[in-house]
Request: fold
Amino acid sequence: MSVLKKNLAQRIEEWRPRTKKLLKDYSDVKISDVTIAQALGGMRGVKCLVTDISYLDPLEGIRFRGYTIPEVLEKLPKPPNAEMPYVEGFLYLLLTGDIPTKKEVKEVHHEFVHRRHVPDYVYQVLDDLSECHPMVMFSAAVVSMEKESIFTPKYKKGELNKMNLWDSTFEDSLNLLAKLPRIATYIYRKKYKNGDIITGDPKLDWGGNFARMMGIEKPYDDLARLYFILHSDHESGNVSAHTGHLVASALSDVYYSISSMINGLAGPLHGLANEMVLRWIQGVMKKMDNKIPTQDEMKDFVWDTLNSGQVIPGYGHAVLRKTDPRYTAQRDFCLKHLPDDPIFQYVNVLYEVAPDILKEHGKAKNPWPNVDAQSGVIQWHYGVKEYDFYTVLFGMGRSIGVLSNIIWDRALGYPIERPKSLTTQMLEELALKALEEKVTEPV
Ligand code: CMX
Reply:
């Protein structure tokens, strides 16, 4: 058994009694009330999911296993001469809660190397779908590998029970993760570089090998590591994470779950927003004839967009109420590596004016930028100019977090998810009852 799996097994054993005790002794303690606004409003703020992989504080932003982004970037081991940590070590952290040693990271790396072979039929699927959107190719490639699942045949043979469900899920998850850099870069090179495929190098880490197979020089490897870590997890209520969790809760294997997660990420209000940001910025650049706009000029563009009833992409968030620290981490990378990039300068002017305008506009609860406001800019700078591909990158990162969650869901025996629905008439009756109670309240 690998060190990662052994340590994970130990953490699971230590954790299980906590969940068990909560269920046994405190099951009726209330954690949330649900209003009509929440039922009709996408369940915002309803506290009804549990995850220990990451926690999103509205004012502080994300913490992974208790660590802020700067702490994660500082504490995790890095490849030689690299600025950013190994994705392998980050996975170790998400799964066990521990900062791994370099030796432990190397072990995860070897696990990935053994599991990275992509079956031939996946390339056939990708070749046949090469006219489709890259997210369609990515989702289809993942679900096409379902027959590789170790979990599903074991389940069918009756070999699984609540105590060992996680074990074959872990195996499936590592097998899938190991293949993602090859699949994603094959999509990219097939679609946009005339099928000129670059072979991988098993000596390289997950992020470094991804950069190599994309065909992009340093420091793109560091950017890749940073990007995948930042996009991995944002607790469980966002569309992609929740979809992955929901599908897996039916004990669908991870190939089905991650393919569904990718489909959720493809929407413009979620993962596709990074593409929309770049489109928006480049639309402004065209109108400005590439001249950097003054703040006043940028204000006009922002108001034009808002007045035409559209959102400012890359701004706002369902939970966050401050600048997303994932935005800040990418901004720091830009300031170091591409401070003079013209698109970055546009992004900066937008940052100077958009929050105040959104406050004045008065609709968005969060006027600050989110992760997507910076990510496309950096990709463009390093030559990844094909917008459609950006969400595939997001999907690679998000898989790390969602798979970690699914493994733990299975380890802790979380059941199939099944919230209850009401009809509109029932809501009207509840509203009327509340009104009557208010009227009869003593003054
Ligand atoms: N520009 C203009 N209006 C905005 C806005 C923005 N960036 N963000 C929110 N609003 C509007 C909403 O459209 C909504 O309007 P209506 O009342 O007319 O429907 C109102 O403000 C209230 O919305 P909210 O409660 O602040 O935000 P939601 O939780 O409903 O939505 C989000 C969150 C991210 C979908 C929204 O802010 C948005 O559409 N942002 C732009 C797209 C984007 O950047 N998405 C990426 C988010 C990160 C991710 O998940 O990947």
